[in-house]
Amino acid sequence: MILVSGGLGSIGSHTARALLDLGESVVVTAHRSSGMPEFLAGEPGIVVEPLDTTDREAVLGIGGRHEITGIVHLAAAPHDLPDPIEYLRADVSGLLNVLEAAREWGVRRFAVASTIAAYAAVDEVPWREDAALPVVAPHQIPVFKRTAELFAALAGDSAGFETVSLRIGTIWGPLGLPDNPFFALPRLLSAAVRGEDADLTPPRPPAYAEDATDLCYVKDCGRAIALLMVAEHLNHRIYNVSSGRLVRYGEVVDAINAAVPGADIVLPQGRNPDRPTDNYLDITRLREDTAFRPAYDVERAVPDYVDWLRKHPR
């Protein structure tokens, strides 16, 4: 069985779905999330374990109830914890406990979530996994994620299990944050579906028609992670996980207006003058080692997400 920590979150639940589709059995852990998405409910190959990953004994206890052969570690402290020390303490504690469990259980492969923000201050276009990363601390999330890559590699090399760092791009889709603090597109879409004005006043991030991001639908993200977990052989220990292309905000808004009659979203023309240079993740490694290809372009992703939002509170 493959353990997915944080497995009822947006990326976690879609990773679990993709693993089931590939014939794997899955244990998902849940801490803040409690409801099982309907696309997982009733599946015979999935088990839910309530878990706070900072509880070492609870983490290790899972191995007494299930035969875990691989781990996808996605669980994380709330992104908006105001105290960076509290945030780091929670995430480091959780990571170390799950790494200890990986060692005890003798897993084959351990994947840990990293982030596109690991490339902060890298000028190379596109961003490739072998880029030299400057030592910067722009936010508590990329600070932890970059060190998590090293923690996992060190522990895996010592204990003899394979580690994979997942540098995940800009993800959106079902179960994601509708009022995302890092980019405006989920807010624009959720407001359109609910017939509301999309309030983008600070501290919400702004949106201009020519702004662009490496946008990846969560179903594609989950499938990419699942493919990395089941691949017979991987040639690298770091993989970019995303669509591998820039998507203009204007392109997304056109799709929203087409999918939601009456939305009539109009973005300011041009590009946000305060926005860093737009960049995207090179996914050559992911494609070559897993044959992954994104299935959801903007024209397919937006109607799918609209349908989800119309049926669910978020």
From TrEMBL:
It comes from the Bacteria. Residues 2-241 form the NAD-dependent epimerase/dehydratase domain. It holds the Pfam family Epimerase. The lineage of its organism: Bacteria, Bacillati, Actinomycetota, Actinomycetes, Streptosporangiales. InterPro entries: Epimerase_deHydtase, Lipid_A_modif_metabolic_enz, NAD(P)-bd_dom_sf. It comes from Actinomadura darangshiensis. This is NAD(P)-dependent oxidoreductase. SUPFAM superfamilies: NAD(P)-binding Rossmann-fold domains. Signal peptide: none annotated.
